[in-house]
Amino acid sequence: MTTPPQAEPAATPPAGADKGREKSPRKSFGTILRESFLEGNTFTVTVLALVTATVLGGILCAFTNSTVLHAPTAGATISRAWDVASGTYVALFEGSVFNPHTIAALFQQASLSTAVHDGYLAAVFQPLSETAVQATPLILTGLAVALPYRAGLFNIGGQGQFIGGAIMAAWLGYDVHLPIVVHVVVCVIGGFVGGAVVGWFTGEIKARTGAHEVIVTIMLNYVMQYFLAYLLSSQSLLQASGSPNPITPPIASNAHLPLLFGSNLRINVGFLIALACAFGVWWLLNRTTTGFEFRSVGANASAARVAGMNVERSWVLVFLIGGGLAGLAGSAVIQGTDFTLNPQSYGTYGIDAITVALLGLGRPGGVVAAGLLFGALHAGSPGMQTVTSTPVQIVQVLQALIVLFVAAPPLIRAIFRLRAARAGGVGSTMSKGWNA
Amino acid sequence: MTSSSAPAAPARLPVLLAPEPSGTSRLRRFAAPITYTVLGLVDILVFGLRAHGSATFAFSPQFAKISVPNLVLPAAATCYVLGGITLALAVLRLLSILGRLTLGPVARRVMLGVVLFAFVVSLIAWADAGQSIPFNVVNLLQGTLNVSIPIMLGALTGVICSTSGVINIAIEGQLLLGAFCAAIATSVTGSLWLGLVCGALAGSLVAVLLGLFAVSYLVDQVVLGVVLNTLVLGLTGYLYNAIMVPYGDTLNNPMTFTAWKFPGLGDIPIIGPVFFDSTIFLYLTYILLALVQIGLFRTRWGLRTRAIGEHPLAADTVGIRVIAMRYRNVIVAGLIAGIGGAYFTIGSVGSFGPNMSSGEGYIALAAMIFGRYTPFGAIAAALLFGFTTQLQSILSSINVPIQSNLLLLTPYVVTIIVVAGLVGRVRGPRAEGVPFIKS
User: Fold this and answer.
1) ipTM of the prediction
2) A381 touches chain B (CB under 8 A)
3) What is the pTM of this model?
4) Interchain proximity B213–A411, CB inside 8 Å
């Protein structure tokens, strides 16, 4: 938490790292590649963590499946277990990336124009579109965790900030009437502001009183959760008139985020906003003075203070921006896919965000990649459940396992007997106390 | 990173402590009288003016051997009197801050207790005013204790872990896995006691993972706790759908512990039904509270545990095996949270449901900090959370026009206020969350 992930160890091992093993002065490219792999650098560890989690997840779903448990012989058990595990992952892939059946259907069409017109072409891209849709809030909330993480702060408050943004986006969406483009922009900005207020509150308390941000954000999650329930419980507040359920009225169609590729695919501008935010966070962190201060505060707050930086201001600002990003996730869900706000809207984004940010090693590019990966898992899981009857919660298990292994490189190195990397790498997620 | 020998904590250098703005400290100085005044005014203006008729308080459960007569009070007058007392205490508190009066710490605590009591009684008087159903105080207190059991046990776990220097955010996961395993074990074996043991072991299984990654692999403990919670949430949700739903009769059909009335003590009016007429879980909570309190502050184990949480290097120097002790404490503490989790299934509801603990582990964490890392404080804070939950459910059952969501929200706001130090600073063990690397 204190130390943001260091720069990856260079792909080539250092000159003195291979004492005794490789005596030859000149090494072939293959040797260098093999060594850098065996050294267990960040990339290797991440890949192996993914592999380990996938294998464990496969074993879990195979040996809880009733056909496997009722297999007559040991051989049948193993073959059925393989079928179930591979079937699960194939179904996940088909639901999230590409399904061969849709291609076959596309080529059976008489002409390209009918294929496009009848939605066969769209069907081919349907899984990818779903992945992008699912990844959008994950990337945004992931950034909301990753940015404070770089400043040495841990944001568990993604849920509360998401709710803050969603409330604003939904309220502006149905209660205000504006022309077409303006309305979308106003709602998106409203979402950012809604989340930013919740985030700012955390940062302000942390800066003023030194209260630990983890406990404050956890409490704020509950506060926002009950606050939303309160808003949705009265028709004079946000509840849709005439509805017995806790739900807001649908937002105006002017406030919907525009679809990118026609009405058959749900992918919308929210995905582009998420990518733009990732770029913005990268730019902020690496190209601006403020970002430099954030990283300095995260690396060593005392040194940053001695160097004349305002540590408290960084804390407040980083939580304000982070909260705003989580709020944007709320706006993306409300304006992009759900169009109403209800107590189910916030789902498990707050927790998922942490896994996304950790897998992404706290870097914007990594967060986008991790968000897409977990988005794919989310997108593929409903189809997987219908095809293989593996419950969707396997996705949560996979997510947690991946992050657990990514967070503990020594374990992965021990399992695969890799040599320890030089100091740094992902192993540097050393903890600090929370009395600071 | 791994080469650094001492568990250096640069974050705790004095320069890093946030400079205290004078506005905040002035607010902090007068926080108590201001709060008292606000509460007193609420008693009078909100509850008193809007209460019509009389409020009836009942003090006996149904079918009690010795029944206590109901207490009927004029609601508005009660609120006025209690509000007046609160305002008088606010004045006293103000005088003591200004130096005109000396109040010992005990007196101050008693005053705070009286103020809170007055507030709750006026709230209930207002809520029950004009209602035909009496407000049953015994039900409220009995329910509070029962609802709080998992939070109390989780908070005790947190106290032991924190005192040993390990942040345990995985309490939530320990509760959930404890609930899950207790339900399965009881359903399969038909033995409640075996279920209880399995629940406890499940809690310490999560603790083993916590110890492994936190103590041995030096993973950030806050991150780790959250990830472990996600893992347990996913795993139990998955297994629930994969095996518990199809084989519900054999795997998710446990019996539950029945209430057992303490002979003699259980028949005392009011106190008996509240404290001595419950399931084994409540009695276990008493025992564990006593054990942890005495253990931490009166035994060699406790002294060593506090030593490894405050200054592991010093403890190591005098020959305490810090890492082994942290492992042992975390795993033993896991047993307690596991028992708390078992309460969800074999102590109250019976069958397991996904995400059954619904965040109570996080509340236990807050209760631990709220209670200043002491066993009694943590239990008291846990009871406060349980009390609001129970009060809300009773008030909504007698159709009181109160926003239940806003009532449920209050303990979290109070926790933020406490953590922010407006009501005194909370200081945890110094080395909490800092892994020890033996050089």
Assistant:
1) 0.84
2) no
3) 0.86
4) yes
